[in-house]
Each structure stands twice: as structure tokens, then as C-alpha cells.
Amino acid sequence: MSAYSHLQMTSPATTQRTLSTAEQRRAELVEAAVRVFAERGYAAPTTEIAKAAGISQAYLFRLFPTKPDLFAAAYEVASNRMYEAFAQAAAEAKASGEDPLEAMGRAYTDLIRRDREVLLMQIHSYVGAGIDDAARAAVHRCFERLYDLLRRETGASEQEAKQWFAYGMLINVMAAIHADEVDAEWAQVLTQEPEEGDC
Amino acid sequence: MSAYSHLQMTSPATTQRTLSTAEQRRAELVEAAVRVFAERGYAAPTTEIAKAAGISQAYLFRLFPTKPDLFAAAYEVASNRMYEAFAQAAAEAKASGEDPLEAMGRAYTDLIRRDREVLLMQIHSYVGAGIDDAARAAVHRCFERLYDLLRRETGASEQEAKQWFAYGMLINVMAAIHADEVDAEWAQVLTQEPEEGDC
DNA sequence: GCCCGGAGTGAGTGACTAATCACTCAACAG
DNA sequence: CTGTTGAGTGATTAGTCACTCACTCCGGGC
Lengths: 199, 199
Prior knowledge:
Two copies of one chain form a homodimer.
Chain A: H1 21-40, H2 46-53, H3 57-63, H4 67-95, H5 100-114, H6 116-129, H7 133-154, H8 158-176, H9 185-191
Helix pairs in contact in A: 1-2, 1-4, 1-6, 4-5, 4-6, 4-7, 5-6, 5-8, 6-7, 6-8
The structure holds a DNA duplex.
């Protein structure tokens, strides 16, 4: 019978009317996909994603014809979320006369706590980029946009940009391997927040 | 670890046998596993690894009872190869009065060209670390050993060590996503070799 | 009332894959 | 020659996965 009909029956009556119901479901599905892919990687089964989204697996495949399509959409959403966080941090820093480079650096560490999924999706996409051409293109686009934003908004030099990305990658990896749960010097050093005099 | 560590045992000179010893086959299998896992990630099927090693899939499972066991062994070999490269670079630099920190940095970029598999295994293990407990432990051990080596041999400060690892992670990721094949400013900047005045 | 189209699903299917099992054969000791 | 042991395999199994299809349900237009 209705196996999981008790999940979210309270569908908001005041839904945004700009989205049709199918588009809305698609958006919900992608949100769920981000959650599950972030946790279990590309190998996450579609059944589990469908369950997380509260729909049947069959309907998942109506909304996204193939699994790579779904993964690409999830990655797109996650990398947009990251981009927006950085753009906002840069804009706010600019408005308040702060150093935008430093603000964007802080935005990264903030992102770990608030939105761990985004960083995990990033790591998983690096693996996907080694195999899937579409994933690789998406990852390259993400780096390009972020690099352009950084150079444009902060005026960082090439060397500064490189260093900024390097620390970002370190944060990504440390989050992926759960270094924060390890009680050892290396873990403490490599996950600690940057001090003031960082160079 | 110590169970399969006899890489080149003394082959019996008196008797020539057409059949290999199990230990020898195990070592060959692990070498093949490193190649295949590096290329295709944790999802690489055991049939393919067996084929690469020139043995049957059934025998693969006799030599390693489970796939995670095999992956862990492959990762161990790959990270040892990395460790040895760093240790050697540090030792040589020390002997010749060079700066060991810089030498170890150069060893990393050299490693990309010579032994790309090692870096790819590293990236793949980050994903494995999010799922498999054994893989996570292995990755943590690898970081610990490397961190200790760095601090001991180069006398780098915590901050210097952190920066060294950050650049290492950047190199890892750029290799994984094939950034070197991209013709764009971000790719060129993030993959270029470090200049002399890097800080 | 009746059709039509879109939302949504239960029940599959074929392809694969980790792991098992029953078995063969080579080598050697006695 | 014979019994034993370890190397090695073909065939199979149990389970999982991406993906499909025939179907139901429901609201709106005629």
C-alpha cells in the first residue's frame, strides 16, 4: 500500500506559483540528491535518493532521464551555493571597506559548518571528473567562475589566488576525511583556522 | 601490513617452479590493483583487477578475502611509494646542504610526472575515507606519517607545514581533474610550478 | 458524463558484481 | 608409484543497480 505516504503530506498550500508542480518536484529531488550524493558519493543508489526526496524511483527517472544527469544537476546546485556564498562575502566586505580576500577566506571556513554538503560534493566531483566528461566540464566551469570572481572582486595576484585555492583544497580534503574528529597534532594543525599573520 | 610486506623474497635458486608463490602473486595483484583503482576509482570491478593481474577473479578473492581488503593494500603500497619519495628527497637535500622543505616540495611535482597513480589513489582514498572505516584509518595514518616526516626532517613550523600540505592538496586535485589539459588562466595559474619567492 | 493530459507509482528486467564452490593440476616427499 | 598440499580456475549464486513500462489517479475543459 502507501508505504511512505506519511512523509510530508503537508504540502504547503502557498507554494510559489512561478514553478509548476513538476519543476517544484524536480527542485526538491535535486536538493535530496545533493544530500545523498554528498554523504555517499557518486555510488549512492537512485532508490535511496528517491526515498530521500519522498518519490518513487520510477518518477525520479522521469524527472531526470539518467543518473549522470541527476548528478550534474546536484553538482550545479551545490557549486552555485558555494559561489553565492563567496560572492556575498566579497560584496559585503567591499561595502564595509573590509579586505575582500580575507572575507572570502573566512567565507570558506564558515561554509564548512553551515553547508558541509557543498564541500563533500566538491570532493566527489573531483573523482567524477576523472571519468565522466560532463562532470569534468562542470568542475572546470566551477573553478573558472570562482577564479574570476576572486581576481575581480579582491584584486588578488596570481600567486595570492593560487594560495587561496590551495588552502581551500586543504579544507575540502580535511572535511572529507573527517580530520576534525582525529585527536593528533597533524589533524589539529591542518584543520585549524588561519591566524592573522598567515604569510 | 606485515602480512603482505615481503615484496621481494629470496627466490629459491635451486628449484625452478612454474607456479608462483602466493606472496609473489599477492604482490603482483596489488600492483595491478593500484593501476586499476587509480584509473577507475573505488568502483573498479574486481574482474578487471584480476584480468590486469593475469589471474582469475576467484583467485583474487583467495588472496584478499574482501574488496576493501584489496583496496586497503593497494592504498598502503601507493602511499608508501609517496612516503619513500619524500623521505629520499629530504635525505638527499640534507646531505647536500639544500633546503629540505623546498626539496620535498619539488619531490611532489616530480611525483606527478613519474607516478601519477599515487596521486590518483590519494584522491580516491579521500572518497573511500568518507565511507569505509578501514580506508579512513589508512588515510589518517598516511597523513600522520607524512606530517611527522615533514616536521622532523625540515624543521618546518606548523604554519609552514600547513601551507606545504595545502599546496600538495591543490596539486592532487588539479591532477585529478586534468586541469593541465585546460587552456585557461585559472588552470595555468593553479597548475604552474612554484616560483622562487613563493611567500 | 467523458475524454485528455500530467503527476505519480508498483512491479518488474537485464546487466553487473562481489563472493563462493567444486574442481583440476603441478609439485614434491616418502 | 602414491598421498598430500598449495596454486589456480570455470561456473554459479545472491544481491544490487540503473532503467522501463503499463498502469492509476485526478483536475479541468467540453
